Amino acid sequence: MSGRSPVWHPFHQHGLGEPIPLVERAEGAVLHTADGREVLDVISSWWVITHGHNHPRIVEAIQRQAEQLDQLIFAGWTHQPAEDLARGLRAIMPQELEYVFYSDSGSTAVEVALKMALGFWANRGKPRAKIVVMEHSYHGDTIGAMSVGERGVFNRAYSPLLFDVETIPFPHSGREQATFDALEAACKGGDTAAFIVEPLVLGAGGMLMYPADVLHEMRATCARHDTLFIADEIMTGWGRTGTLLACEQAGVVPDILCLAKGLTGGSMPLAVTMATAPIYDAHYSPDRSKLFFHSSSFTANPIACAAANANLAIWREEPVLDRIASLTAHEAAGFARIAAKYPITNLRQTGSIIAMDVEVEDAGYLADVGLKMRAGLFARDILLRPLGNTLYLMPPYCISDAQLDRTMTAIDEVLAEVL
Ligand SMILES: *Cc1c(COP(=O)(O)O)cnc(C)c1O
Q1: DSSP state, 186?
Q2: Are residues 269 and 357 in the same domain?
Q3: Alpha carbon nearest to ligand 1 atom 11, residue
Q4: Which end of the chain has the lower number of beta carbons within 10 A, N or C?
Q5: Residue 356 sits in the same domain as residue 329
């Protein structure tokens, strides 16, 4: 490579001059860089890779599909991979979610969910516009997704473009009633179109966790007041929390479900927004003005759908949940050892996601210690990206105990260095 790269990276401050590793190939939990390093990817390349990089079944499905049909208009046309995937999802997702709408990223799946909710009310002749959200949420980086997410340094400059929402407090332990009361108050006026929430774990907001009974209660409140319940399982889905969906643990079925990230095992960009029959039916009519007005060029791309079908086959035929349970236990033991040694608070875990907060004065997303930990871990060939002073793991399910042990040793050394 000669000269400075013209690539402008996302969520990256080029002005800090951090090294930008060039990765040539990957398998399992390991990234191979151009300069010969083997880096452990313990955050699944930002939460997307579930079974491991380059799972042979997914690679094969992509290769086979690429030779058959690369791309197809999806407005009124269809192809077998999309048909198979929709039926495959119907078979494993809650029965009430009868319809599958395709798009190509998590943010878009959220935009689609919000538009479906407003379309539902508008097409039934009772327009509702209010959206209720939870404090510290993250739902993506497009304008609508940002609007329903936490406001902060990441979107301050764009706030004039964001629409107003009503925010309820995060259900901190012992303060759950404040969350329930706020949701009840927001919904009871009868003008709330939908409540959108990340079930059990708020990811980018700092790996904040709340128990299943809280999720259950929030869902019940929405049902009581006819508020649509949108579950954003873009991060929590596909086994991350120890079950296929986080909603499962609360016995909850949403009206609208957003899935992306692990839908293709993390191999290809693809998302779905699944909806119940009443939501589909509100758009079903001989009247063209009531159709669902959303599409993007790569909606239901056949190669991405083929990759997702291979992911479903892996879920059907391989012991995925056993792998998750095993790595969950190993993570817990490792983090407990580390937390006992350093000024650590709030050690928490939901399935494969484990997190702890390093005590510092400038706690928060811009905490200095985050960058220092990231650099120290990278020097030890570990890819981890702390959220400020929150250190977390979200590894691919193929990670071995030895690889997790190597991660723990590196974390131990780095904490000793930076604290
Ligand atoms: C990552 C994420 C999104 C956005 O998905 P993209 O594919 O990055 O657009 C939305 N919601 C949650 C909970 C996420 O973790």
Answers
A1: H
A2: no
A3: 139
A4: N
A5: yes
